[in-house]
Design a protein that fits this description.
With about 180 residues, the protein is an alpha/beta fold. The chain has a single domain, classed as Glutaredoxin. Helix content is about 40%, strand content about 20%. It has five helices and eight strands, in the order αβββαβαβαββαβ. Strands 2-1-5-4-3-6-7-8 form an eight-stranded mixed β-sheet, sandwiched between helices. Strand 1 and strand 2 form a beta hairpin. The longest helix is centred in the N-terminal third of the chain and has 22 residues. The chain is globular and about 45 Å long.
């Protein structure tokens, strides 16, 4: 009899873990996330409440990140007249922030750039420690999509367009893996 009870507990625990991990992406609210802009000022997701936020994690040493940033800038221009903001968040260590600033200047990046991100934060928000990583956040600060690896335009646009149309149609998948 004890083995049946033990199996029942294991089954219940496994079911709860499955439910937790299956909903872990969408259940995360990042409204309180605070980092720094390149001038050292506090930068908060809550500053963009009421807007869709495409939050991209990158690093100066990451080749795919450097390929992805211009595409994100182009998408930002396409959504410029809508309630969408694209934010680049560097995971470079603090001692490398001057290199981040230099890179942004050389590349003439006009998107907001934040510093203070980390591999731990990327893993916390996206579920895996891989950059680039992109998180699409709804107007209330809830994560609706995570893109691990170099995002394709359609990966971002599918989630953003779904949010902009009032969530009409099928919801986009919560996770896209591109690595």
């Amino acid at each position: 009899m004890p083995s049946i009870r033990r199996r029942s507990y294991v089954l219940v625990a496994a079911t709860l873990l499955l439910l937790f991990f299956a909903s872990s992406v969408a259940a995360k609210n990042v409204r309180k996330l605070t980092l720094r802009d390149l001038d050292g000022n506090k930068a908060r997701i809550s500053d963009y409440q009421g807007r869709v936020v495409v939050l991209n994690f990158w690093a100066t040493w990451c080749g795919p990140c450097k390929e992805e940033i211009p595409r994100l800038g182009q998408m930002a221009r396409q959504y410029a007249d809508q309630q969408v903001v694209f934010v680049l968040t560097s995971i470079d260590e603090q001692k490398k922030w001057p290199a981040v600033r230099d890179y942004v200047g050389r590349q003439k990046i006009t998107l907001p750039v934040w510093v203070g991100g980390s591999t731990n934060l990327v893993e916390q928000l996206s579920g895996i420690n891989v950059v680039p990583a992109t998180v699409v956040i709804d107007e209330q600060g809830e994560i609706v999509r995570v893109i691990n690896g170099e995002a394709r335009d359609e990966d971002v646009k599918e989630a953003v367009d779904w949010l902009l149309t009032g969530r009409k149609g099928s919801a986009p998948s919560e996770r896209v893996k591109r690595y």
